[in-house]
Write a structure and sequence with these properties.
- It is a single chain.
- By secondary structure, the chain is an alpha/beta fold.
- Helix content is 42%, strand content 19%.
- It has a single domain, classed as 3-Layer(aba) Sandwich (Rossmann fold), CATH 3.40.50.300.
- The protein has 9 helices and 7 strands; from the N terminus they run βαβαββαββαααβααα.
- α4 runs antiparallel to α5.
- The longest helix is centred in the N-terminal third of the chain and has 13 residues.
- It is globular and about 50 Å long.
- Bound molecules: adenosine-5'-diphosphate and magnesium ion.
- Magnesium ion binds next to α1.
């Protein structure tokens, strides 16, 4: 089974995946960097465009040679690489802004990610492209607990159903005007 751990930057994907020793984790950003799987540059957003097709080929080659029953991909685009299951990490936009600020993101990048999280961009993409989708709210949950949730979902424990999408609605919890004015930063 191929699992994509995804979510807006700052939701805690890398922190939680670093704790997972039980399964092989592929850090897509490292592969993209090492193999130069870049297909262009998004000038408006000041980011590189990842060669998703090249990455898909590389992953299927890896899976062919792998004996593992579960492989996890970590990245905010892992849900776009045909995983059997996507686990979307979520964070209240107010907390997300603080995490990204601490990480040294520019004001513009914080706004972009806070707005994307607010309106469920990655969740919607995951629902459009993956058969099984779950979401975990990491706002007030330490990475160790998030890790246990991920393992329970992957292993099909019955409380995995707690993580079916639809429970999180940041629009109800956040002062949208404050977000737009950038007051969360
Ligand atoms: N569950 C969590 N609770 C509180 N802070 C967290 C949690 N997960 C990550 N962080 C912090 O938030 C920041 C972003 O985490 P990171 O793992 O880099 O996110 P991502 O890989 O999704 O961009 C880091 O400073 C990290 O220490
Ligand atoms: Mg990361």
């Amino acid at each position: 089974m191929l699992v994509g751990v995804t979510g807006t930057p700052g939701t805690g994907k890398t922190s939680v995946c670093k704790l997972i020793q039980e399964y092989k984790v592929i850090y897509l950003n490292s592969i993209v960097k090492n193999q130069k799987l870049i297909s262009g540059r998004d000038k408006k957003r000041d980011t590189t465009i990842v060669d998703l097709e090249g990455l898909k080929k590389m992953i299927s080659k890896f899976l062919k040679n792998s004996q593992d029953s579960v492989t996890i991909m970590e990245s905010h685009y892992s849900h776009l690489l045909n995983p059997d299951m996507a686990i979307v990490l979520r964070t209240n936009p107010k907390e997300l802004a603080q995490r990204l600020k601490k990480k040294g993101y520019s004001r513009e990048k914080i706004m972009e990610n806070v707005e994307a999280e607010l309106v469920d961009v990655i969740l919607v993409e995951a629902l459009e492209s993956c058969k099984e989708v779950f979401e975990i709210d990491t706002t007030a949950k330490p990475p160790e607990e998030v890790k246990n949730d991920i393992l329970n979902i992957i292993r099909g424990e019955k409380h995995k159903f707690e993580f079916l999408p639809g429970k999180i609605n940041w629009l109800e919890e956040v002062d949208i005007e404050a977000v737009i004015k950038g007051e969360l930063i």
